Amino acid sequence: MKTNNIYKTIAKYSFAILLIATVSCNDDLTERNQQYPQLNPANADANAGTWTPLLLTAPDEFSLDAPGATTTSAYKAEINEIKSYQANITDDQQRIIDYWSAGGVLRWNEIMQTLVARHNRPPYQNEDGTYPAPSAANPFANPQFPFSNPPFAARAYAYVSAAQYDAMVATWHYKALYNRAAPFVVDPTINVMVPKSPLPSYPSEDGVLAGVTVEILKLLFPTEIAYIQEKADEQKLYRIIAGANVRSDIDAGVTLGRKIATKFITKASTDGAGAAIGNQTLWTQLENNAIAAGETPWRSLETPARPPMLPLFGNVKSFLMTPANVVASRSSAPPSTTSQQFLNELNEIKAFSEDNSREHQRIVSFWADGVGTYTPPGHWNAIADEAFVYQYFSEARWARNLALLNITMMDAAICCWNTKYFYFNPRPSQMDPSIKTTTGCPNFPAYVSGHSTFSAAAATYLSHVIPSKTAEFNAMASEASLSRMYGAIHYRSDCEKGMILGQTVGNYAVQRALTDGAD
After folding, report:
1. At what angle do helices 340-353 and 470-486 cross, to 10 degrees?
2. What is the DSSP-derived secondary structure letter of residue 468?
3. 238: Cβ–Cβ under 8 A, 6 or more apart, which residues?
4. Are 94 and 349 in contact (CB under 8 A)?
5. Which of 384, 110, 68, 113 is nearest to 246 (CA)?
6. Which residues 6+ apart lie within 8 Å of 92 measured at CB?
7. Which of 78, 137, 307, 355 suits 48 as a labelling partner, its CA being 20 to 30 A distant?
8. How far is C-alpha 463 from the chain's CA centre?
């Protein structure tokens, strides 16, 4: 593909996603609500019940009762419920059909992006100059839990998507096991307002998605439970009104989804994320370690100095990588802060800080993904959503592809943060106060670049999913990486080594994809 075509593609994503990022900074929950065609899979993936789950020991680890027969009076009453709704569909009911029929996995991913943007705000300092920390044990206290910074967001996207994937594997297993016909097969007079699935309807994939997703999101965003439940209620109702499921299909799905969520909630409680903030003793030790090595340590440039962001996130337990894998993947040391190479790279960033070209500023702005946005992992989710829609995936494949994308970005966060706090390298504007950044200055060490690591990991996996877009994804990752140099917050070594680290991490997801039975 020619370079100009690649950048036309980037411009297309820029228009859609920059608009989203702009509205996400409002106090109100502003949903993306992109206009997409109804989900109409090119392949129903009838064998998805045989794919390898991520955490479940088997697709039937959690039991699901057999459905009632379609000849019973109870089932006939459910058919009549569909017809009753369809006799007088309100404008609001048509709205939820139009919204949710694009696909449950897609819409929940957009909802996640909304929630992350809403909570991506660092706490203000106390009067005494200290900073409060959000508490999951008291989420409504000031500041509210969570602060959905990039590592938190990467982990959140991963847990939601991974749980949805395992839930879809179990759903497809039980569909094949019980083989209950869809309501429009049982009663051909039903008006079906969405594309007809050739698969059995019990349990409903939308019911399962609602059940599993609500439970995970309640853990991650406990102050948003009313909003989350409202969206789930919409999703469940739309399937009934649209004639795709009877109520017992939905209810069974919700039950199954809630059971599966417990396994992921248990993992989340023991993965080490709760301890990632560290304490003053640790923060001081990291600084002293750098000094002892003859280097200039990173220091917060905020006033008063803010504690470093999640210095122990590099110890969080991954889905795909072992702790030994994380350490083995750690980037080699950056140029010493006393070296000529470091000085050369610092001077390069100073030159970028004085470059006010419109093109550089466009790139910096588009990839900034700072406070009040869905973060770099969310940006790549939005890119994936735009690309996946026109691949016409089934819900099971949507879930699998987003799960591996988000797991690799969680692993990117783990590996990147492990590297950052191992070397504790200063930012350019710390070393030369005359350097003025054009996109703020993140409150954590420079080496390696998070944007570069996230982007290369995402592009590596997405290129496996859609090989025809490899050049486009790689061009976007390169631009995201360069944006941090143009914005004067990263050295060239940060970005180049971050890209290499991201590719290494992304390949773990590719290897998993090659062996999970879906390819």
Report:
1. 90
2. G
3. 93, 96, 97, 99, 100, 101, 206
4. no
5. 68
6. none
7. 78
8. 17
pLDDT at 85 over 50: yes
Which element (helix H / strand E) includes 206?
helix 205-220
**In the structure, how many helices (H) and strands (E) does the chain have?**
19, 0
Nearest alpha carbon to residue 171 among 397, 510, 405, 509:
397
Which class for 258: exposed (0-12), middle (13-18), buried (19 or more C-beta within 10 A)? middle
pLDDT in tens, 192-244: 999 999 999 999 999 999 999 999 999 999 999 999 999 999 999 999 999 99
- d(CA 454, CA 437) in angstroms, rounded, equals 21
Tokens of 441: 């200055």
Amino acid at 254: V
Percent helix, strand and coil across the chain, each rounded to 5?
60, 0, 40
Residue type, 89: I
**Identity of residue 145:** F
Residue with tokens 């409680």: 269
Please choose, from the candidates 4, 162, 13, the residue with its C-alpha nearest in 3D space to the C-alpha of residue 473. 13
Distance CA 337, CA 343 (A): 8
Burial 126-138 (b: 16+ CB within 10 A, else e): eeeeebeebeeee
Q: What is the pLDDT of residue 34?
A: 78
- Does the pLDDT at position 39 exceed 50? yes
pTM: 0.95
* pLDDT tier, 26 (very low <50, low <70, confident <90, very high otherwise): very low
